[in-house]
Write a structure and sequence with these properties.
The complex is a heterodimer of chains A (about 400) and B (about 140). With about 400 residues, chain A is of the alpha/beta class. Chain A has 15 helices and twelve strands. The radius of gyration of chain A is 22 Å and the shape is globular. Chain B is an alpha+beta fold and about 140 residues long. Chain B has a three-stranded antiparallel beta sheet. Chain B is globular, with a radius of gyration of 14 Å. Classes of the chains: A alpha/beta (about 400), B alpha+beta (about 140). The interface between A and B is medium-sized, with 29 and 28 residues.
Amino acid sequence: MDKRFIYADNAATTRVSNEVLNAMYPYFVTEYGNASSIYALGRNAKKAIELSREKVAKAIGAEPSEIYFTSCGSESDNWAIRGTCERLASKGKKHIVTSVFEHHAILHTCQAMEKLGYEVTYVPIDKNGFVSAEDVKNAIRDDTAIVSIMYANNEIGTIQPIEEIGKICREKGVVFHTDAVQAVGNVEIDVKAQNIDILSLSGHKIHAQKGIGAIYVKKGISLPNLIFGGAQERNKRPGTENVPAIVGLGTAIEIATSNISEKRDRVTVLRNRLIDGILQLPKTRLNGDRDKRLPGNCNISIEGVEGESLLLMLDINGICASSGSACTSGSLDPSHVLLALGLKHEVAHGSLRLSISDDTTSEDVDYILEVVPKVVKRLRDMSPLWERILKGESID
Amino acid sequence: MLYSEKVLDHFSNPRNVGEIENADGIGEVGNAKCGDIMKMYIKVDNGIISDVKFKTFGCGAAVATSSMATELIKGKSIDDALKLTNKAVVEALDGLPAVKLHCSVLAEQAIKAALSDYYTKQGIDPLPIIGEIGECEHCH
């Protein structure tokens, strides 16, 4: 078997597609004007930004005037939480509802708000990786400023009952934000039908470049600025616009949302082969519900091996993947998402996330399924923990 | 996270992996919860560590430090092996990322644990010779 190179970490970031790169190119070298300038070169840049805004709006069922470009998904998340809290502070709203398995852009922002005197309710997830809309409903109080529940989880790919939660928030009159960074291009999003008030998205997960994101803010909600400066983005998000990146995001989101169901069907077939193939190994488990998950997400715990070793071995074999192991995060604890699912530390340490995309081929999956068992066997053969697991000994 | 070439070499081609049947000393340190377990087997002939093998569950640095530690003590006297510090293991690997230094501590402790077991099997109290092995700061 010849060594191949396979990128199976698309939930981390994606390759910039040729269409996106080609669309961006003129805005580096010929249409490089500052969009605030009065002359044609500047006006062309401005037009390109507005065209991208229309594309982003269309992709999620919003109005162009409801879209602001940001530097990344994290900025959008920060702005949604901090902005909403600031906006509603004078009304005495000092409570936030979110979930235990949000991205750190949400969790750490919420922790920062706790230091400012806010109370945060972190609703749990069930063993399949879902937030319950009922739990969200019960968590909402009279002083709740915002509910923030991610659309789809970045590690285990589970898709949350967003429409249901949106309905509850609308009935209760609470602002509903969703971090849809992983969901855009994978599921059909309609912010109006789903009662979403604020939504975060990012370019680099959908084949645009890193460093560009957007936020949808429903008409009627005026989010106080996160940063101050010039008049860009209707005074709401100052800083000279990153025109090529904005053009790239517009192009990428248009492509990503133009054929969702066809792409989803194709990627899901490959993803299911990956899941079934790896689950043939003994002492493995799929993390997160099998069906209501992002089409490209495969997250499996492999007992007796440690995640970082697994990733290094896969890398030696040309496969790029990710893990919830503590060793890959630089912290002492394994992934908060896997722990929230109820996994023991030692099982969470041995998790493998493969996230494929529409670029992935059937041959790529064949290759991954050849390599993973070999690598797992090699690591298990040298693992004293695996020895104990085989003997049925307690590993605590 | 950047590993040196030596770390990657010892990770991808670890030396002395395995077990020793009827080992003269076996030491195990670390725990599954924190993600690292090192188990070291030694064979001792006339005060010389004539063979050493290891099994490790852990990250790339854990495997590489185990491998390097076995290389550094194989063929050496027990006295020399007891003098091996985690710092020496790190230096021999051309350094480790700061967050991985605890793995080298585990390697040093695994050797001491194996030697401690060796002395115990010889009917000799290991404590005055080896001292307290201690717990990994990372885990506790």
